[in-house]
Design a protein that fits this description.
- By secondary structure, this protein is mostly beta strands.
- Helices cover 4% and strands 33% of the residues.
- The protein has one domain.
- The protein is built from one helix and seven strands; from the N terminus they run E-H-E-E-E-E-E-E.
């Protein structure tokens, strides 16, 4: 957990996509799945995703790998906020190539 209280597995909302490190390939190696990272691409503000990895930079800034709709982004902590309504913002989950929304699940 860092100064903003984010942990791997938390659902977050992008509040400032200008904090995306979309051209820092050296920083991306080892923190993102390079097959899911797209050089130069940034998420939209208000996109929701899940933190899948975390790294502190040399100057102690917190950088997060956030996965949104199958694409991974590197975003600084000031570009994110913890999603208050996390479970309802998962767009879709793919299991065995069957797509469904979380609210469609019957337990």
């Amino acid at each position: 957990m860092d100064e903003k209280g984010f942990e791997v597995g938390d659902f977050v909302t992008v509040v400032n996509n200008g904090q995306t490190y979309s051209t820092y390939e050296k920083l991306a190696v080892g923190i993102v799945d390079m097959k899911k990272w797209k050089y130069g691409e940034v998420p939209e503000n208000e996109d929701c995703g899940i933190i899948v990895n975390h790294r502190a930079t040399e100057n102690s800034r917190s950088i997060y790998c956030v996965e949104i709709d199958g694409t991974q982004y590197l975003i600084g902590s000031t570009g994110l906020r913890l999603d208050d309504n996390q479970i309802n913002n998962i767009p879709q989950i793919e299991i065995k190539k069957i797509l469904f929304k979380v609210e469609d699940l019957v337990l």
